[in-house]
Amino acid sequence: MSDVVIKVENVSKQYRLGSVGTGTISHDLNRWWAKVRGKEDPFLKIGEANDRTKRAASDLVWALKDINFEVKQGEVLGIIGRNGAGKSTLLKILSRVTAPTLGNIKAKGRIASLLEVGTGFHPELTGRENIFLNGAILGMSKQEIKSKFDEIVSFSGVERYIDTPVKRYSSGMYVRLAFAVAAHLEPEILIVDEVLAVGDAEFQKKCLGKMKDVSGQGRTVLFVSHNMAAVKSLCTQGIILRNGILDFSGDAENACSNYLGKSMQEAEVHLMDRMDRVGNGNLVIEDVYFQNLAGENINSLISGEYVKIVFKYKKNITKSIHPLFIGVTIKNDSEITQTVIATDELGINLTCDKSNGVIEVIISQLLLRGGNYSLTYMVSEKKSVVASHDILDKIDNAVFFEVEKGDFWKTGNINRPSSSGFLQNSSILIK
Amino acid sequence: MQTEENWDLIIRPKNKWYQLDLSAIWRYRDLLLLLVRRDFVSVYKQTILGPLWLFIQPVLTSLTFTIIFGRIAKISTDGTPPILFYMAGITLWSYFADCLNKTSNTFIANAGVFGKVYFPRLIIPLSVLISNLIKLGIQFLIFIIVWLFYLKGSCDIQPHWGLMWLLPGLIFVMAGLGFGFGIIISSLTTKYRDLTFLVGFGVQLLMYASSVVLPLSAMPDNIKRIVSFNPMVSIIETFKYIFLGNGYMHFGDLIYSFGFMVVLVMLAVIIFNKVEKSFMDTV
Q1: CATH code for A271-430?
Q2: Which of A125, A406, B128, B138 has the fewest CB atoms within 10 Å, i.e. the most exposed one?
Q3: Which of A343, A320, A326 is nearest to A392 (CA)?
């Protein structure tokens, strides 16, 4: 029989938008006055769902609203959701960094998270001193750290520097040491936030490896991720958060397909009606479609063939936009980026003078294998590769499309589905 | 059938106002000691004199006070050698002031750590109290050296040996006062920062009203009455009474200081509990 180790009951979290200032004190007084009279907090009744793309009517939002779920001993729970869906807030509440506004969470055993790699490292202290300090901050006793010290050091691979202050470390060494300490925690419940796990690919792999170890030992893991493939392969259960509301709860496989299905549904809405648009709107993409070599519109693309991606734009300002940047990201059905094609990298300088027109991204040979893909685009004003973007328009997963298997190598053999590739010999021009 | 289960941890929106989880603090005692060590070690890294600076600070301050207040302003020191008089005050005062100053930014200075990982928040201010205690110990040693020098040399110091046992109590009350004030300020400044502007300045000002520079006996009566509300006055006066033989000591005033400290610390814990849980959202 499996025991419930985490029980989340009606958890809600309200945040204030804007900065703390003189307006806040009147709210506080209001709240206090309600409390004195024994009334309910007036600000808990208002507040709206956390959809960051819409301008808010009130300056209180529910980052989480009425979240309920249970995790059983030994389960690996994937928490899926877009940026801003409330994943990190949930983790913060679970790791007791902040308290919920309403509701409560019950847990059995020690909760530790791999999101706090390197917390409390003091730059002046040596590696050795920091291992002890950091270990203690994460909740280990001195005895525990001492017994694992050699293991931690050899895991981190910084033996030679162990008596050098960590401010002299390279950033890689710093992260390795920090991770080594965190990885030797032995909590009953481990929280892993892939989004926050900064570091190189090797480091992320280590994170995931550690997670597998932990779940292999029958301990419970909560895993936050964007990466559907990782969720599918690592998790047993999954929940989806959408604008702070629990959208789905079930096994990991279903959670992933549900999440992707919802994203696809959103894409069926016409581009002009999309609510998740980001940017200042000086230039808006009204439609995105694909054309073949003959200039006919096509719905599905063929691996290895010519394809033209057409972005129909409308400029809402009179002045011309000079270094016009457009970047196109193609992701596969596990939300993993397959390729990016961008003007700045290609050394192309576009100028937008007309108020209406099209931007054509020409791919002479589509190096994607058969499978389902999505297209994310961003249009911005950007002077150089290193300059920051002044975003004009951006939509994540603007369109979904299918690539049919094709004879990419002109050998008469059809390729296999779903893998990554490059877009060769591409060019972009504006008309 | 699952009946009411035993949960190790229940995360609720608010703490109970009186809740003080001493067992959690005890579980994290290793962290407490490591933080003390960190405070002590990290400050004197890359200095040549290292902890010797702890000796130099009070000596230089006492010299400055001796010249300015003793020689130039000619303020009475109740007949004791000025350097000894000022050193006694400064040694004690700097413990209180350091505790207060350091704990008063507990939340803001540690927001980075507090924002990522949970441990009993009170560990941080407690570690401040202890690491300053070590500093006080060292500075007290200097005072004793200077004191012994004068004790052998001249005869106008008559320590009250019988009252020496009061010393740990005096330090305890000071620690409580510094902690209490510091925690209250730090809790109040998580949302509204206004108080932070007052702290450094306020502590400086308070020093002049705590008979560090000006002995109580040299103050006019009406001012004396106001100043004696300051719980630090009786501590410093008593200390001088014990070691230097002059000054002023009254058990009633000591009890007042002790009571003040107890109430202050209780108040501080209540406010701290209120703030602790969700200060990350406003800090």
Answers
A1: 2.70.50.60
A2: B138
A3: A326
